[in-house]
Amino acid sequence: MSIDLALVDTIVADKGVDPTKAIPVLQAVQEKFRHVPLQVIERIAATTEMTESQLYGVVTFYSQFRLTPVGEKIVKVCHGTACHVGGAEGLTEALEARLGVKDGENTPDMKYTLDSVACVGCCSLAPVVMVEDKVFGKLDRKKAAKIIDEYDSSGGSR
Known about the structure:
The chain has helices spanning 5-15, 22-33, 38-47, 52-61, 81-86, 88-99, 141-153; strands spanning 73-78, 112-117, 129-131, 134-136. It is built from 7 helices and 4 strands; from the N terminus they run H-H-H-H-E-H-H-E-E-E-H. By secondary structure, it is an alpha+beta fold. It has 2 domains: 5-61, no CATH class; 73-153, Glutaredoxin (3-Layer(aba) Sandwich). 25% of the residues are buried. A 4-stranded mixed β-sheet has the order 2-1-3-4, covered by helices on one side.
């Protein structure tokens, strides 16, 4: 994938060049590219007061950042205690089968990324799956797979 460095420069100009702006700059980059490419880290370091080491440290420390591309929609399966007890492993297995990928992988068309997470904070709805910012609770294997069917049949939105 070709990276538009002019777009990166625009983000930096908008957010700022000093090291206190590292997180907002990286968040904006990730929003545009769905990850933080190493080429972009190099560009930010070359055009700001931030070093590559500082930027890489931020990207690898915070779980919100990704160094590899993700799908258009991230399907998060909660594996916190309540969800684990409620059958989260089965939800992950059903979604792996439905999407044709393993946990942590992207579908070949880059439409979805399947991701197990520690907790989404919806324990009373356990077990839970999130797609983007929408929470689906009290799920079983069939209901979890059906979420993807509904997204696919609606053209990607719900």
